[in-house]
Structures are given as C-alpha cells and as structure tokens.
Design a protein that fits this description.
Strand order of the largest sheet: 1-3-6-11-14
Helix content: 10-25%
Number of helices: 2
Strand content: 25-35%
Oligomer: single chain
Shape: globular
Number of strands: 18
CATH topology: UDP N-Acetylglucosamine Acyltransferase, domain 1
Length: 180
C-alpha cells in the first residue's frame, strides 16, 4: 500500500510539473516557480536536496532515477532522456548547468545488420556528474560518462568519454583543453 501511495504522489507531482509548473518563470514574485519546481522534484526524483534549482522548462521524463545534490541545478530548457527507461543520473553538489544542456542515459543498439535498428533495443547506462562541475550552454553528455570533480564542459561540447577531475574540455567530440 505504501509503495502505491508514493507512486500516486509521484504521478501527481509529475502532472503538476508538466502541466504548468515547468512553465512558470524563474523570477516570478517570491520565486514561486523555482520553489514549486524544487518541491515537486523532491517528490519525483530518487534523491533531491532542498537547495536545488530546477529552472524553467526542464524535461526529465519520469525523473525516478535522478539524484540531484546540494546547491545544484538543472538548467533552463535542459533535456534529460532515458531515466524513465532504467538509465540513472547522478548529479553531485554545487553543479552549475547552463540552458539547453542534454544528458542521455540510453543508446540504441545498431550492430546487427539482419534486424532493423528500430527493433534491436537499447542499452541502459548511467551518467555521473561529480561535485563542483560547470556544464556550458547546449553541451551534450552521452550515456556511460563520468564527469570528474571540478571540471568544466565548454558550450556546445559533446562528451563521449569520461572527463578527468579539474579539467576543461570542449569540442565535438569533447577533448582536453587545459587543467583548472
């Protein structure tokens, strides 16, 4: 019964979030949009601190496999795909995310030539973004990636491999630029 009760509240929170809360401005009177989105995400996400900032128009599917740390945010217009299909996303503490960042936790299988790609299924992965990371505008993080503590991902970068701690990466695919 308790699991059913919790699921009911999660789905209710999702309906409120996607129905209107995601569209509320970030700087409405008394920061109502920001506070309401934070409250709803504490119900929806697997783990979510009271000090998070989920900005306007962020999309995260069912959000049930997301852990969002202390003082971190999900940027305006961010898209998080795959967490509803079993993929997992861990975002540590003090993570800054610029607008329109995309994070993927699923990828399609395509290796067999005798079966159409659409029928080959997909691989489920996790993405780990450690503490004190800055993710630039429209960066894309692909499944299975771990972003090291203190790293910076440049705007427009496509992250296909793990990033070492305290490094700056950029480009397509993302490559080492310098140490912080």
């Amino acid at each position: 019964m308790n699991k059913t009760f919790n699921s009911f509240f999660q789905y209710l929170a999702l309906a409120i979030y996607y129905g209107f809360a995601r569209f509320l401005p970030n700087k409405s009177p008394f920061f109502i949009g920001r506070k309401l989105r934070g409250f709803l995400c504490r119900v929806i996400f697997k783990k979510c601190s009271h000090t998070v900032n989920v900005k306007q128009n962020a999309y995260f599917g069912l959000g049930n496999n997301i852990e969002l740390g202390f003082n971190s945010d999900i940027g305006m217009g961010a898209k998080i795909y795959g967490v509803s299909g079993g993929g997992k996303l861990y975002i540590g503490n003090n993570v800054m995310m610029a607008p329109e960042v995309t994070i993927l936790t699923l990828s399609h299988n395509y290796h067999r030539k005798d079966i159409p790609i659409i029928k080959q299924g997909f691989n489920v992965n996790q993405v780990v973004i450690n503490d004190d990371v800055w993710i630039g505008y429209r960066a894309i993080i692909l499944p299975g990636v771990t972003v090291g503590k203190g790293s910076v991902i440049a705007a427009g970068a496509v992250v296909t491999k793990d990033i070492e701690p305290n490094t700056v990466v950029g480009g397509v695919p993302a490559k080492f630029i310098k140490h912080r």
